[in-house]
Amino acid sequence: MAFLGSAIPSEVGLRLLLCPIGSNIVIRTACCTVGIGLPIYSTFKAIEKKDRNEQEKWLLYWAAYGSFSLVEVFSDKILSWFPFYYHMKFAFLVWLQLPSGNGSKHLYARHLRPFLLKHQARVDRLLGFLSTEIEKFMSTHDGEIQFMKALVVKCATTANQMLKDITHPVRPQGQNMIEGPSPPTRQETHDSGSDADN
Predict the structure, then answer these.
(1) Residues 6+ apart with CB under 8 A from 20
(2) What membrane topology does the annotation report for this chain (predicted)?
(3) Where are the domains of the chain?
(4) Is residue 145's pLDDT more than 90?
(5) What distance in Å separates the CA atoms of residue 90 and residue 94, rounded to the nearest whole number?
(6) What is the gyration radius of the CA atoms in the chain, in angstroms?
(7) Per the confidence metrics, is the pTM higher than 0.70?
(8) For residues 28 and 39, what is the distance between their CA atoms, to the nearest angstrom?
(9) Given this model, what pLDDT does residue 2 score?
């Protein structure tokens, strides 16, 4: 009976994941979780443990995932129309991480590394050129950049204060929220009358 109780949620999960029509949101969430969420945590653990093998594994994964994401940026709008595209993407992301398949290591060694070695000089020249142009732009427009930075900080501070005022309104002293301003006390009435006499 305990087996039946644990089998039902997994069967429902598999049906949601594999149903081609109703699971678009589910499968995309699963892709994000498997492709980004779990690897972030696994990378964190590899760094904290100082395990060189795990660090290399996750470096290879991020290189493979980054190259896949770069290709996907240009092809996603077309490929997403194909049936089971996100299911295939999910399977690919799982394959990249599985220790038995060594998918990311295979992709890096067979495709990514040879491509980058072949084009390394061009990529370095391009990155050097872009770096120089960005530095020129930053130095030329330093005044505008500082102005925009100050403006963003001021807007963020104002928005934060407005949010605080909305969430924690400050009541003016002597004012009841339901009844409005409190009536003047007897002392205040007497003092105002003596001022009028003078």
Answers:
(1) 83, 84, 87
(2) Multi-pass membrane protein
(3) 7-101, 119-167
(4) no
(5) 6
(6) 31
(7) no
(8) 16
(9) 47
